[in-house]
Amino acid sequence: MTVDLTTPSALRTLGLPAAVREVLESADVIVPATRDELYALALGPDGGPVFDVVYDVHGEPVKEADVVRCANGLAVNYPEDYMRRRDPDCMRIADDLPTDKPRYRDVFGAEFAPVKAETLDWLAGQRIVVVPFRAGGPTHGYPSLAIVPANAAFFALTLVDLQGWTTFDELGPFTPRSIVYVAPPFRHTHFDGRQVVVHDRSASLHEVFAYNLYPGPSAKKGIFSVLLDIGEQEGWLTAHASSVRVTTPYENETVVMHEGASGGGKSEMCQEFRRLDDGRILLGTNVVTGTTDTITLAESSALAPVTDDMTLCHPAIQGTDGRLVVTDAEAGWFVRVDNLTEYGQDATLERAVIHPDQPLVFYNMRGLPDATLLPWEHTLDSNGKRCPNPRVVVARSQFRHVVDVPEPVDVRTFGVRMPACTRQTPTYGVMGLMHLVPPSLAWVWRLVAPRGDKNPSIGESVADTEKLAHGGLVAEGVGSYWPFSTGTKIAAANLLLRQIVAAPRTRYVLTPNQHIGSYHVGFAAEWLTREYLARRGTSRIRPEALVPARCALFGWTPREMRIDGQTIRPSYLQPELQSQVGEDAYDHGAAILTAFFRSELQQFLGDDLDPLGRRIIETVLAGGTVQDFESLTPTNA
Question: For 587-598, how does the pLDDT look when each residue is reduced to its tens digit (9 = 90+)?
């Protein structure tokens, strides 16, 4: 396929900083007219079937990635294990606006301006791809720009697949609200081989400098950072959440929005139940005795995904009925497929990626030239084990029944990865299958956003790895979007609290994944909670049907749970009733969790904290009861 190499006049009409305009005037600029043209560029000058992405580093060629042309898309792989997932400590702030994140000058002992100038000079001497996009999706997004080396066109393809294909003609003259720059060799020449993503903000422009080719911290979460920055200025949030419209066999509709730290079950909320060969659902397997519990659902609810990861809570879509209204901030989803290990485990996803309407971009998966890439064939890390972070970028339109209009949220669930807890090895894994919490406690859980057990999404820092290996907890922070925020924690906490208070008809629920006490449950608890709440619809759970959880942070526990006439054993709702746990082990785990929350919440008690937020945190520190939290933010749903 031939690619039009002429620079359109639209580039000359953009409102750009002078230094950026100089790059576009000096470089060999390619502006693909169609996605097909951009896809062809990603295959390299020969069109594949294998293309190595190589850069000159101090006079030596260094391979950063390779691209393989498969029947259903591109397989992108990185030579280094380290580059196959997001480094959680890669964000650096170059400006002087308020932030709680590491500033570039404090980490590297110098200002960013000279490196920024070097980056632009390097791009000016390259063959580059320039693509426009709307940060925040096609409908409510902010016109933006990406400048990428042509041999890394797969990166630009990923970005526009996530945010939605558009053209300069469609956008017309504009001043970019954000610009993404990609300069891979600087990882070696300036940053000792580490992933570094530098954010340089002003009141009107958010620049993202990506010094690596894994798109997670830049093309994906970097755009999340842009939206959070804009929202902090304008007074609204982009939540780190998935959401799904659940339609029961009786045609009741409930919209569930699921939040949580990385690995907390956001993608899984939009997935069907995993069933055994005989159709039953495996609820749990006791890690001590090996005994199992199953449940039979002849017909489960129909799922219509609304959002996958970046959930836009833009003021333009909010209603007046007391529920939060959400829509997708993306046109495509960066789907992790580590839980696909063989054929038939997720028919919907398998259909979407094996027989797509257009060729896709796959990461960390084994691709053979011109053969169909299978989503359960993951790249092996250097230790011989499957890479835990295989990904594919899939357009929302590839999924059946996807919802394309804003939806009001009935229930906001929050997922937490829990380790096994037993009498012999007590841990904090004592959350029951489902807990209802008042809005104040829902805010507290989002402030801390604990990330425990094994998390497949990102590489851990050495300190975090040590904590998690020994049953400890790590806080991902405010709303679980804090890793991507360039602002301050207190400003984010205030925005989140105001959002929660402004939606009094939205209910709040906690649900664990991986373990409930001594039972391994995977994501079954999350799926059963979704089914249970959908079947109840808008009806409230009567106060007499609830009991305060033994740990006050868990709010209330249902006395019983019945789904399709079947009763869930009480020991799944109250893990202290399990013979392998008991009250002592439960209390030990609850003490770990409570101490962790008290430690993490201290940092929010600054002068700028909302007064209601201060009272809520002080109630946690004072050992308040669930009734105390309810009195601060009464439940109206």
Answer: 999 999 999 999
Is pLDDT of 409 > 50?
Answer: yes
pLDDT class of 400 with cuts at 50, 70, 90: confident
Listed residue (550, 598, 619, 513) closest to 268, CA to CA: 513
Q: How many CB atoms lie within 10 A of CB 636?
A: 12
The CA-to-CA distance between both ends of the chain, in Å, stands at: 57
Q: Using the CB atoms, write b or e for 495-522: b if 16+ within 10 Å.
A: bbbbbbeebeebbbbbbbbbbbbbbebb
**Burial status of residue 185 (CB atoms within 10 A of its CB: 0-12, 13-18, 19 or more):** middle
* Phi-psi category of residue 395: left, alpha or beta, with phi > 0 → left and psi -120 to 50 → alpha: beta
Rounded distance between C-alpha atoms, residue 492 and residue 68, angstroms: 41
Q: How many residues does the chain have?
A: 637
- Distance between CA atoms of 196 and 34, rounded to whole angstroms? 30
Give the model's pLDDT for residue 280. Answer: 94
For the chain, what is the mean pLDDT? Answer: 93
Q: Omega into 98 within 30° of 0, i.e. cis?
A: no
pLDDT of residue 454: 60
* Domains, in order of start, for the chain: 7-43+84-233 (3.40.449.10), 277-294+409-630 (3.90.228)
Of all helices (H) and strands (E), which one includes residue 105?
Answer: helix 104-108
- Close Cβ partners of 538 (under 8 Å, ≥ 6 residues apart): 254, 410
Kindly tell me if the per-residue pLDDT of 164 is higher than 90.
yes
In angstroms, what is the C-alpha Rg of the chain? Answer: 24
Q: How far apart (Å, rounded) are the C-alpha atoms in residues 569 and 519?
A: 12
What pLDDT digit, counting tens, does each position of 207-218 carry?
999 999 999 999
CB within 8 Å of 478: residues ≥ 6 apart = 446, 447, 449, 485, 489, 492, 493, 496
| Beta-ladder partners of 604 | none
In the beta sheet, which residues pair with residue 517? none
Would you state the pLDDT for residue 8? 54
Any idea which residue has 């805010």 for tokens?
A: 443
